[in-house]
Amino acid sequence: MRDGRVRRSRLGIAAQSVSLDPRLARRLKLATPSAAMITDLVPGGPAETAGLAKGDVVLNFAGEAIRGVDAMHRLLTGERANTELPVEVLRAGKLITLIAIPEADG
To answer: Is this prediction's pTM over 0.70?
Structure first.
């Protein structure tokens, strides 16, 4: 915290927490059967530039398991702005790892 506020970074997405099929979660060796699904992207934003797409289910971000939107939001700190970070997503039944560079928020 600096100047009385928490600094954040952003990917330029809208997302919602989703439950995964328990069998899929076991197959992927996930601790919990939940994640964050991308519902919209800011055109030209960091997520779109990284190759993320609507419908991608984010399982891991910056090496941390994503159990929902709140978990992802907590990881988007100001210190992570302008840093290459791995994003593991489930897309059409396949695991894909992309590199995203969050931008400073505000």
So the answer is: yes
